[in-house]
Amino acid sequence: MGQIHLELFATLDLVGQGPGGPDEDPVGFAFGGWQAPLLDERTGTQVQASYEGTDALLLGRRTHEMFSTYWPHQEGGPDDDIATLFNRVPKYVASRGRPDLSWSGSVQLGADLPTAVREVRERHERVKVVGSLNLVQTLLREKLFDELHLWLHPLVLGTGKKVFDGGAVPSVLALLAPPDAGPRGTVFLRYGLLEGVPATGDMTPPGD
């Protein structure tokens, strides 16, 4: 069985909506593109390394739509490595509607999303989920992921869709590598999902 990795960019208040640009997810959200002023070479290197070994993408409809109009035209440019990877690997799309599947390798998942995702994980070694916050909520709820890669940015927005926005269930994660901070304050955190639920205890000193 392969692994599913969630790749997410978030603010300190865990808003993950519209990091890439003002038109990414504009409905009711005025901060689209909040990530752009904080980009740095170190974060770019982290992202590049995170995609090594990826052999499939798992995307929500909106993210797939944006990617399909951008990445097919980026090979040979500054993001050639990622463009070549994204254009080559299968793209599995979670959608209740009828998404445009003209981007080579795009396949729509069935209506039973948890079952379809489990089948994808059996079929591939390393599956990446990029953005796609609505899809992420289902994967969190079903514990259908193996690693969570989170880039935390030094911003507080106070509004917007959050990483754990209705999908979180009691879970335990382990930090897989030391936090890696970039020069502009973005911190890369890599967690692995463990079995079980959070334990509790009593911090009252003995005898009190």
UniProtKB/TrEMBL annotation:
Organism: Kineococcus mangrovi
Gene3D superfamilies named in the record: Dihydrofolate Reductase, subunit A
Name of protein: Dihydrofolate reductase family protein
Domain Bacterial bifunctional deaminase-reductase C-terminal span(s) in chain numbering: 9-171
Family annotation (InterPro entries): DHFR-like_dom_sf (IPR024072), RibDG_C (IPR002734)
